[in-house]
Amino acid sequence: MDRVFNVNSGNGSIFTSKPLDRETLLWHNITVIAAEINNPKQSSRVPVFIKVLDVNDNAPEFAMFYETFVCENAKAEQLIQTLSAVDRDDSYSGHQFSFSLAPEAATTSNFTLQDNRDNTAGIFTRKNRYNRHEMSTYFLPVVISDNDYPIQSSTETVTIRVCACDHRGKMLSCNAEALIHPTGLSTGALIAILLCIIILLVTVVLFAALRRQRKKEPLIISKEDIRDNIVSYNDEGGGEEDTQAFDIGTLRNPEAIDDNKFRRDIVPETLFMPQRTATVRDNTDVRDFINQRLKENDIDPTAPPYDSLATYAYEGNGSVAESLSSLESVTTDGDQDYDYLSDWGPRFKKLADMYGAMDSDKDS
Q: Model pTM?
C-alpha cells in the first residue's frame, strides 16, 4: 500500500502512484513479475531501477545566516560583507545566481549591493559615518535568482548592526551601550519617569499634611461636651519628690488643707470659698492604720511606685454622718417606728402598709 509505482497487468506499463521528489530520493528500485495467462507457473522476475530526473522547483537561498556589522566611523563605498548562495536543484550546466536589492530598499537603503557574477555579491556602505544611537540595526532585503527554467527566486534578509570600532576597523562594542546610555532614553520614557517622581512627591506631602492635622486636633472639641473625656498630659511625674503635683501631707493631716487652694488641672469659673463638713479631730485609729499601711508599702519590694494610688479600704469609726447601712437595724434589739412613712404621701403608701403590718404582728 506504500509503494510509489504501479504496473499495468495487461501491457506492463509502469506508472507512478505518488509524487516524486529528487531532492528526497534520487533512485527507486522495484521488481516486476511477468507470468503467462494460461500457465501462471511460467513466470520471471525483473529488477527495475528508476532514476528521478531533476526539475527546477527550488529557489536559491543564502549559504548561511548572515549577520554582520558596520562601524560608526565607516566611509562610503566600504565593503562590509560578501554573500553566497546555494540551490538544492541539480543543474547540468552549473548554477548561476544573480543578486539584487529588493525594490522597496533599492533607493532608500543606506547600503548598496554589487553582484560579482561568480555566484557571490558584496554589500557596500552608501554614506560616511553611522550613528548607533539613531539606528542600531539595519535589515537589508536581498533577492536571489537562478538561470534555470522555470526561473526561481527568493528574498533573504541580511542583519547589519552598527558598532563602535577602533581606528583599524576592529569592533569594540555594538548596540549594548545604546541601551544604557543616557541619551538613548526616549522622550516618552523620560516623561513617564518624571510623572512617577511627581506622583511620589505628592503622596509624601499629603501623608505629612494628614499627620500634622491629626496632631493639631484638640482633645476636647467643645467646652460644653466634657462627658467622660480622657485628657492625656503625657507627664510621668516625679514621685515623692514632686511636691508641685499634690500635697501628701493633706492625706496624713486633714487639718492642713488650705481653704484657698484650688484644683490645678482645671481653671475655676468662679472664685468661691469651698465648704466642707467639720472633720473629726485627731482620729488616732485612722492615723495609726494609715501609718501601718505606709510602713508595709515602704518595706514591701513588690509595692507599686510612690506616685501611685494605694487603696486601704478602711472606713474608720466616729463618722459624722454615722452608718448609712440598714443592716444594723436587724441586729439591734430596739423596735423601729415606721409610722412616719404614712406622712410621706401616696408614693410610700405601699411601704407604710407593709411595715405597719409588721408592727401590728409584733404587738399581737
A: 0.42
